[in-house]
Write a structure and sequence with these properties.
Length: 56
């Protein structure tokens, strides 16, 4: 739980005093898109390992 709060604080601190609201919204959307894409890749990798895919 402590690590989750630390990640949340780092996320909030990263967007504090950024300037333009358009830039702030763009970076927030990009950050969430990056998180989602990372978890999709992680899921695909675990799925390939679980189904016995040969990484030749």
């Amino acid at each position: 739980m402590k690590k989750l709060l630390l990640v949340k604080e780092i996320y909030l601190e990263g967007f504090r005093n950024l300037g333009s609201i358009i830039v702030e919204k763009y970076f927030k959307v990009f950050a969430w898109f990056s998180f989602v894409m990372f978890f999709i890749v992680l899921y695909a990798f675990v799925y390939r390992i679980a189904t016995g895919f040969a990484f030749d």
